[in-house]
């Protein structure tokens, strides 16, 4: 709790425990928001990222951090929620099997529910459409469509409340730019876990697409990579 | 399980246990879909409606019925998820406190996730914008915006998969028309529970907005009302 009650505008910030969402949270804080951090236990391969999300939220001064359970593994259909599907360790064409059906739609919907109750106009999500895995729900057109939906789905659409904004400060940055931006805002990237199949200590495999994007980002930024590998 | 595997196109059908969604499921079945019924334990006041949903899904030949837990009561902000807010027993102006922030957005998002995994193009939801409580997320413009989002959020938007359709067969019917339609399709409305504050036996209060709309629907349809009241 770093703000006095009522001192700052509230925002909901999706925090996965990875590098991008940590930087996104730091940006929201730098803009002066009182940040309500939201993470999901959705049946992902490991919960090390949830412990990382807790560290990140605390270190970056979130007002509170909440972990919601929503069992996307009951549906499966992704290497991240079905252990019967291997995480690819080489680039693939098209949408990879690590895509989790409708994940960002589900996460933003729940962020929207919380935002409406909090009276928050701003929802931050650290999606990126440059150095990314090609997921459909990271693209600017997806975000624009969700924002439009949000303003029809809620009181904002009927009672003239202030409109909901889906804030994506990273969407057009390269991974190297995200790394530099985060470092400039004091993000301790050693706290974060990006790997799709980290061990329970949060040590990365070094081979999956998320590890590759992260490693290349640090290299291109010319800064030391604090990632702990298995 | 009323279909041989692969015999019919799959659809996801949201089933709340109430009158409207039961009729919606009956319509989907009458159109020949293999129906995957989805209900939510979201922190509502009573779980009698979930038992009703199970009865309805079984009686109307759903291929399977799944209940997902997603704790909207953690956010509160509605008389249906916060027992500190009373359910109104007289009509109100504007959006009533029984509105649950972003509920249909959350439910449709999770239906979308399941639909994508199942390879289902069709998602049925029994929203109605005639005899309804004025919730923003029951309006045709909300549904159209969600359908547009769904086709940007998923593989359909990138890989040219068959588009997702949000099917709302009840949206422009009066409650009396819904009752007649349901009866014509063999819905046993005695199985359903509409009341916002039913007791654990599923007996209705007879005073809330949902009870009022239901009672007026049966009266206008000129058919016996099988509702059990407290």
Explain what the structure shows.
2 copies of one chain form a homodimer. Chain A is α/β, with parallel strands linked by helices and 230 residues long. The first copy, chain A, has one domain: Rossmann fold (3-Layer(aba) Sandwich), CATH 3.40.50. The first copy, chain A, contains 6 helices and 5 strands. Chain A has a 5-stranded parallel β-sheet, sandwiched between helices. In chain A, strand 2 (34-41), helix 2 and strand 3 (64-69) form a beta-alpha-beta unit. In chain A, helix 1 packs across helix 5 (175-184) and helix 5 crosses helix 6 (209-221). Chain A is globular and about 50 Å long. The first copy, chain A, starts with 9 loop residues before the first strand and ends in a 9-residue tail after the last helix. The model of chain A has no long low-confidence stretch (mean pLDDT 94). Chains A and B meet through strand 3, helix 3 and helix 4 of A and strand 3, helix 3 and helix 4 of B.
* CATH-assigned homologous superfamily of chain A: HUPs
Q: In terms of per-residue confidence, which ranges of chain A show pLDDT below 50 for 5 or more consecutive residues?
A: none
- End-to-end gap of chain A: 34 Å
Beta strands of chain A, count: 5
As a percent range, the share of strand residues of chain A is: 5-15%
Brief digest:
Two copies of one chain form a homodimer. Chain A is of the alpha/beta class.
Give the topology.
2 copies of one chain form a homodimer.
Chain A: E1 10-14, H1 19-30, E2 34-41, H2 48-59, E3 64-69, H3 103-118, E4 122-124, H4 140-153, E5 165-167, H5 175-184, H6 209-221
Parallel strand pairs in A: 1-2, 1-4, 2-3, 4-5
Helix pairs in contact in A: 1-5, 5-6
